[in-house]
Amino acid sequence: MENTQEVYDVRWKLVLLTFVVLLVIFGLSTPFNFEWPKAVKFKEVSSSTSAFVARIEHGNLGRQIGLLMLAAFSMFSLAKTENRYRVNLPTGWLFLFYLGWIMLSLSWSFDLFFTLRRVITIYILWVSAVIFAGRYTLRELAFLAVLVTGSTLALGFGNELRLGTFEPTNIWWRFSGLFHTVSMSWNCGILALASMFLVTDEESSFRRAVLWFVFAVAIIFLLLTKSRMAFASTLFTMGLYWYRVVSGPNKLFLILGLVIALSLSYLGLSNRWVYYVGEASTLGRGEAAKEQVSDLTGRLPLWKYCFRRSEERPILGWGFNTFISPKNMFEVARNVGWTPGSTHSGYVDAIMGLGYVGAAALIFFLLAALARAYDLSRRYPEYICVVSVLIWLYYNILLEATLITRPSFMSFFCMTLLARLALLPGAEWERR
User: Fold this and answer.
1) Half-sphere exposure of 61 (CA within 13 A, CB side)
2) What string of H, E and C letters represents the secondary structure of the chain?
3) 189 close to 238: Cβ distance less than 8 angstroms
4) For the whole prediction, is pTM greater than 0.90?
5) Under the phi-then-psi rule, with left for phi > 0, alpha for psi from -120 to 50, and beta for the rest, what region is 321?
6) Which of 63, 117, 120, 423 measures 20 to 30 Å from 69, CA to CA?
7) Is 101:361 a contact under the CB 8 Å cutoff?
8) What confidence tens digit (pLDDT) does each residue in 110-140 have?
9) pLDDT of residue 252
10) Across residues 280-296, what is the average pLDDT?
11) How do residues 40-63 score in pLDDT, each as one tens digit?
């Protein structure tokens, strides 16, 4: 018993140390920008194509330092990690093929140096994710997610108070804290999903109460980001999670409760119901947000242009995550009427960067990972959380590309779960 407690204490200290290291790493590599809310409020964020090109050509020194720190810490962790790796069929082979195709894209890239930077970044993230997957249990990874995303949310809230930009009654305001509102919405979404999982897995009533509080705070601030896709995907996957974890009779009460709540809201709102549904669909962002729904905030013209250009390189693409690059940016901006920082879809980005072969590899890998997670969830209940996070990820990369291509803790957390499914056995090795 004492030996078990000693192992638990050592593992908990390891988690706390890793939390501090990851917060520093992703604070640099995301990066955290403590002036961002003020710049947005006073419209000091440059959207000109020239400024954007100059910024991505020079890169970000903090991001480079953060990625080097992540690589170094991961190599150190690998030396301490017992070798449990194996290539699972078909998930593991699809994963390895996808990584190999990314590397091969250097040979056909139309902007070699830019592609090389993006390939190095994604390889550091994926290799580190593989190492973390073998080093930490699912429960430990969930704790790390709560600690890192919770600290990021707290820092962001404190930062907005410091700058005087926290204005929840302002229709134009959206909570961002340290970076773009969409990234903060992902941060809050992962915090909500991870804390929800730990609530159902925690035995201590005090810790459960703390986790419920964290969960509630995450949902409140997720709403304040006014990011519709992140909120909808989080709400959907939370419902899926609770439907899977509650007992059979309680499922009926869960469904009936939802039906009754919707019915009462319809009766209470009467002819105003359609109006309030419309307002809810914008999360309080006003009429401008409703008008943007028709073209998905400018994404549809961008995607139409991307698909036209994909016909020029349908098999191989333009090089991993390279279509939106300095060499192509002015032409893209001229054709779509604005300056996009990415293709705004992980799937479209895969087509443009890796061709239809690479995009198919990514999609089949993601589907195989989800199928494996679902299969494992029937034997190991903790994998229900993995299923939920993966569905959340797949929803969000419909409208954003950076969640699986750029360094952030949210990306890294999802990558770690995918790496577990590809290259590690189920949860049996955690039950020692």
Assistant:
1) 0
2) CHHHHHHHHHHHHHHHHHHHHHHHHHHHHCCCCCCHHHHHHCCCCCCCHHHHHHHHHHCCHHHHHHHHHHHHHHHHHHHCCCCCCCCCCCHHHHHHHHHHHHHHHHHCCCCHHHHHHHHHHHHHHHHHHHHHHHHCCHHHHHHHHHHHHHHHHHHHHHHHHHHCCCCCCCCCCCCCCCCCHHHHHHHHHHHHHHHHHHHHHCCCHHHHHHHHHHHHHHHHHHHHHCCHHHHHHHHHHHHHHHHHHCCHHHHHHHHHHHHHHHHHHHHHHHHHHHHHHHHHHHCCCCHHHHHHHHHCCCHHHHHHHHHHHHCCCCCCCCCCCCCCCCCCHHHHHHHHCCCCCCCCCHHHHHHHHHHHHHHHHHHHHHHHHHHHHHHHHCCCCCHHHHHHHHHHHHHHCCCCCHHHCCCCHHHHHHHHHHHHHHHCCCHHHHCC
3) no
4) yes
5) left
6) 423
7) yes
8) 999 999 999 999 999 999 999 999 999 999 9
9) 62
10) 54
11) 888 777 667 787 788 887 788 999
**Token digits of residue 173:** 């305001």
Exposed / middle / buried, residue 202 (Cβ in 10 Å: 0-12, 13-18, 19+): middle
Among 45-59, 145-159, 285-299, 321-335, the range with the most confident prediction by mean pLDDT is 145-159
Residue located via tokens 């190095």: 120
Q: What single letter denotes the amino acid at residue 27?
A: G
Nearest Cα neighbor of 324 from 295, 303, 296 is 303
Tokens read off for 52: 């954007």
User: What are the tokens at 183?
Assistant: 């990234």
| Dihedral of alpha carbons 367, 371, 372, 376, sign | positive
The string over 355-393, giving b where at least 16 C-beta atoms fall within 10 Å of a residue's C-beta and e elsewhere, is: bebbbbbbbebbebbbebbbebbeebebbbbbbbbbbbb
Contacts (Cβ under 8 Å, ≥6 apart) of 383: 138, 373, 374, 376, 377, 426, 427
Structure confidence at residue 276 (pLDDT): 45
Pair of tokens at residue 361: 């590899």
Size (the chain), residues: 432
Residue 282, pLDDT above cutoff 60: no
Asked if residue 269 has pLDDT above 70, the reply is no
